[in-house]
Design brief:
Two copies of one chain form a homodimer.
Chain A lengths: L8 E5 L4 E5 L2 E6 L6 E13 L2 E13 L2 E5 L2 E5 L8 E6 L2 E6 L6 E7 L6 E5 L11 E4 L13 H10 L11 E7 L3 E6 L4 E4 L5 E6 L5 E6 L3 H12 L13 E4 L5 H11 L4 E5 L6 E4 L2 E4 L13 H10 L3 E6 L2 E3 L3 H9 L12 E3 L4 E4 L5 H17 L5 E4 L17 H4 L3 H15 L7 E3 L7 H4 L3 E2 L13 H13 L5 E2 L1 E2 L12 H11 L6 E2 L15 H16 L1 H14 L4 E2 L18 E3 L3 E3 L9 E6 L4 E4 L5 E3 L2 E6 L7 E4 L5 H5 L5
Protein name (chains A, B): Alpha-glucosidase
GO biological process, one term (chains A, B): carbohydrate metabolic process
EC number (chains A, B): 3.2.1.20
Chain lengths: 671, 671
């Protein structure tokens, strides 16, 4: 890694302003006639309905901070000479620190010079567009939307029914950080609502609904080193648990019957690492169908004698996983305990704020109250989950902090909203650490924000639709893995077969198989029955799907030694398991725009089939290598597009000829 | 009418600013800490697709013009004391004149104090909301949209197919003028894109994408006088032609067959004033179906010997109407003439700008070129239409001026776009005047803008969907008549049965009948076969509809003496024929929110049935009168809601007991 001193930011005076650069790259360019910072006052309107937000700003004032006075590493900005400074920047430790002299300012716009052919990636976990250039990205944790495409019937219907259709930028995990193809990265340290606007040719505009603490810049000669720097900055995940390598995590929510079905899948040759039953807490009947009972402890009616069965499974080499989220339903026993102890966020009147989740209300455990966080970690996750024998869980939600609740730390909920996923991750991580199970118990989250990297050992891509759609189907999971991976989230995975089945949209066997084919080349294979299990085909209900799935779990298991080495790289260097092609081929600009194939570690290239009824696929192979097709052994020169046959069971996968793992990879052809 | 001197605006200094009032109503209230004017710089993005616009603004700067220096009737505004003025206001002749000292300013925001319970009406011809309070209205002439409701399937499909779904504020005829329930009116004299934002409790915010020439205020003790003032300001229509009173204008576009169908309708008892054949110019086949041939002269293949037939009709007391719009198709003979003469708007290279209207291109006749306007008025409308024997026409379009064409007068097309409908109206009016047929030849327009009142003798409500939908059906025509009527457009009418039939949405006989029932109580009854005549039921295809329609034409004809008196009021005083209830009942605030019933002149109240399958309707009857139900003679006291039976043929209609026309009205019961 390069010496950090080389990266020091340089502040230079110019005729009527200044420039700031890092590693020779100009990141601020200010003059009186073309200022780089605007400040103002806005009044936002924010409406939440079940995790979906309508947000609009009324900008009352936006002024150019045109006049700069520079004193050492301090820049005092005002609208004109003679005016008292409204904002002071300090260039320090690779960052620009902000200090508002005018307490009325609650909006800031910062322009960062852009090249015409520049690409930008990141923004947290983005589902639709890996390269964000040309578009505008609000960064606010929320439901990601259903369909996420204003031209799709599903999005339209979801909007009408629940305001839930979403758009390309909606994500459970936003983060105000981007990586530029100009070999620098930028991060805004704030939890306020912000917007990255990459639509302009000459500059990127960063909008923040607050004075941010600071804006950090990172630069390195290579993308790999840049990603390492970001991982150092945001936190590092532990290694994958050893037990994960044994096969797939099988998601079933069928009560006791789940055990029988698991066994029959094993009998069919499925390699299994764990059984995941989100319904371990029991069910609630609603008009929408069965929902989980949001009180985080075993329901022995639905799972009699579960503790014993978990132990038996474990003896058999299989772990048991559950489910938890940061709410407690009013009709569960834990609610009363939390309310008595004052652990819930409150409304203006000081009483427990209730959130409607669709025919049942919940309290929001206030994680800014250390006692509440500790109680959730110790009494719920510690005692009722880990001590009970769970080896992991879906740590669901985190995006729904209502913006009008009152919190123990006294900070405006609008400023805590984005931070909530990170606090939620921390509660989970602390519980795991308290049992010394870090790197052993595995929880997975869909929500995130800056810093979630430090606490969350595994992302899952959220709730895709059960289809091949461009903005909410299988392909979006690749974009999610690549964008989050660049920002220090080494491990990503998804629900095999997708989750959301609405308005008659149901899984096809083909979708299930294509999804499993991709998942075999990700850190974790995990199946999900989806939101409407009975209306959608399940892996164990179709012999072709089952046998295909079994083979994919064998492929996953076969690659475990390689995956383990990738986990080692993640721990040591912060490199993600799934990587954009440009990460290792930065001289090949052809790779910069690719978001539907990825490097699985340094040696393997995976190009999933993400559309229906494809007999083959065109894949770009990076320059400077010879690439071996995993299923035929045929070799191709890099630097070209190849059209490759891709029948079911043979997703386009290539590895580097001559790589250290060539022998292992060539073994795929016997599976 | 009150003395205009009473209305003089008053400018008064305050501690750190000023107030401006009219008739005691404060219309500007400025202080350093709460300025009423903001100025700035924006960069707009405007995309047009077939008359539908996507418009977005990037506000680079918006500053408070907080510092005011007052000198006589001049107010010099700047951001702070000591700064050179950026904007100078002059209070003069009931208006605020604007002069920008800073040429960079291209955005202005003006706050006008609002009462909590204030209503505002106007904005041109609004289809969805008569009272605009609580909503935001961009004012830009465009297609009005199909469905105009983001929750409707038709709007969704129209958006996906053609970006054509529209929203509540889209209108062919915007106008930056409103009438306040506080008994004043405001008008912004500008043709720039503007926005009226009535969403805030304490003030209305007016946004203009230019420095307007001036903002005019009007005040009067009564709404009636206020409307008279506005009609004086914007122009006055001539009386309705005498021939109109003879019955309905029958719209048929069936070539020669139209004459046969007209006769059979007359045989069935339909009272007819005119036959309207928009296809008199011939047809063009496209993949969307038959379209008119946009070259404005008779097509004798489709209408053999038309001149003789028009004369025969006229001998029979029936007029003939045609169709024209401001474009010329490239494959018609008029195009060549216009192009040779340099009458078309051009592109940047100076060649004729072509506009795609769906499988055929057209030139845009440049009405800012006096020679082109004169040619269109004289050679086309004069010679080929009026001299040929036409007594009127639909003067279609006017909303499509592309924002990137070059015009003869050198003004930016973005500034001429809104003015185009008025220029188009003027061309038509001049042609009519040149043959001394003002008040005799009748053309009708859907597009409009400030000043269209002066030239256009009759509005038509544009292209409703053939249904009862809230935002694009029958009911929207009432809102259109009331809003435009307040601003000096005395005559309004609509396509009986609606126009737009898409995505399987077709007319029902019930819709046709309910529409005809309403139209009998408007200035002009006119039928339209719609955009897809063969897929939609026509008046002459259903015996019940035909007989119902015939009766409605008799009702219309019966009321002609009354209508004629209303036309007299329009000519003399500028009062609209269709009036909101509050116009004559301003002390009854219950009437302020009503937009689905109207006064038909001072003596009659009409409450059309605008939903399907209604056996009755609840109608509010204003205070201080006794109201006679037109069909039963039953009398009701005002100040209450009554539920009234409304079978087909008996739309809820009431008249004032004891009014001058009582005998005439009571005659309705015999029809």
């Amino acid at each position: 890694m390069q010496d950090l001193k080389d990266m020091a930011m340089k502040l230079e005076k110019t005729e009527t302003g200044f420039t700031v650069s890092i590693n020779g790259r100009t990141i601020l360019d200010h003059s009186t006639s073309a200022p780089c910072i605007f400040a103002g006052i806005g009044e936002e309107r924010m409406d939440m309905y079940r995790g979906n937000f309508e947000i609009e700003d009324y900008v009352i004032e936006r002024g150019r901070l045109a006049h700069a006075e520079i004193d050492g590493n301090r820049i005092a900005l005002s609208e004109r000479s003679g005016q008292k400074p409204r904002l002071v920047l300090t260039i320090e430790n690779g960052a620009i620190e902000f200090e508002a002299s005018d307490p009325l300012i609650n909006r800031l716009w910062i322009r960062i010079p852009a090249d015409h052919d520049e690409h930008v990636w990141g923004g947290g976990e983005q589902m639709s567009y890996f390269d964000m250039r040309g578009r505008r990205f609000p960064l606010w944790t929320s439901e990601p939307g259903v369909g996420r495409d204003q031209t799709s019937e599903i999005t339209f219907k979801s909007n009408v029914k629940d305001r839930a259709g979403g758009d390309y930028f909606n994500t459970n995990y936003p983060q105000p950080t981007y990586v530029s193809s100009a070999l620098y990265a930028m991060h805004v340290e704030t939890s306020a609502y912000s917007v990255f606007d990459f639509r302009r040719k000459a500059f990127h505009e960063i909008e923040v609904w607050a004075i941010p603490e600071r804006i950090e810049f990172f630069a390195a000669p290579t993308f790999v080193e840049l990603v390492e720097l970001l991982s150092d900055r945001f936190g590092r995940q532990p290694p994958l648990p050893e037990w994960v390598y044994n096969g797939a995590i099988i998601g079933l929510k069928d009560g006791e019957n789940s055990f029988r079905r698991l066994q029959s899948m094993r009998d069919a040759g499925v390699e299994v690492s764990a059984l995941w039953c989100e319904d371990w807490v029991g069910l609630r009947k609603t008009s929408f169908g069965a929902r989980l009972f949001w009180d985080w402890q075993v329901n022995e009616e639905r799972y009699p004698d579960l503790r014993r069965r978990i132990a038996e499974l474990r003896d058999d080499g299989i772990r048991f996983l559950g489910y938890v989220n940061p709410y407690l339903c009013v009709d569960g026993p834990l609610f009363e305990i939390a309310e008595k102890a004052g652990y819930f966020a409150t409304d203006a009147a000081g009483t427990t704020a209730l959130v409607d989740f669709g025919e049942f209300d919940c309290g929001v455990v206030d994680f800014t109250n250390p006692a509440a966080a500790e109680w959730f970690a110790e009494d719920i996750i510690g005692k009722k989950m880990l001590d009970y024998g769970l080896s992991g869980w879906m740590a669901d939600f985190g995006e729904y902090l209502p913006i009008d609740v009152h919190l123990s730390n006294g900070i405006d909920a609008k400023l805590m909203h984005n931070q909530w996923p990170t606090l939620w991750a921390e509660v989970n991580a602390k519980a795991v650490a308290s049992r010394s199970q870090t790197g052993e118990a595995l929880f997975f989250m869909r929500a995130g924000f800056t810093g979630v990297q430090k606490h969350c050992p595994l992302l899952w891509g959220g709730d895709q639709s059960v289809d091949f759609s461009r903005h909410d189907g299988l392909v979006t999971v690749i974009c999610a893995a690549l964008s989050s991976g660049l920002l220090g989230n080494a491990y990503h995975h998804s629900d095999i077969g997708g989750y959301t089945s609405l308005f008659g949209n149901v899984r096809t066997p083909e979708l299930l198989m294509r999804w499993a084919e991709m998942a075999a080349f990700t850190p974790v294979m995990r199946s999900h029955e989806g939101n409407r299990p009975r209306e959608n085909v399940q892996i164990d209900q179709d012999p072709q799907v089952l046998s295909h799935f079994a083979r994919m779990t064998r492929i996953y298991k076969h690659l475990a030694p390689y995956l383990k080495s990738l986990s080692g790289e993640a721990v040591a260097r912060g490199l993600p398991v799934q990587r954009p092609l440009f990460l290792h081929y930065q001289d090949d600009r052809e790779t910069y725009a690719i978001q539907d194939s990825y490097l699985y570690g340094p040696d393997m290239l995976v190009a999933p089939i993400w559309e229906a009824a494809q007999a083959d696929r065109v894949v770009y192979l990076p320059q400077g290598e010879r690439w071996v097709h995993a299923w035929t052994g045929e070799t191709f020169a890099g630097g070209e597009k190849v059209q490759i046959a891709a029948p079911l069971g043979q997703p386009p996968v290539f590895y580097r000829a001559g790589c250290a793992n060539e022998a292992l990879f060539s073994g795929l052809r016997g599976l």
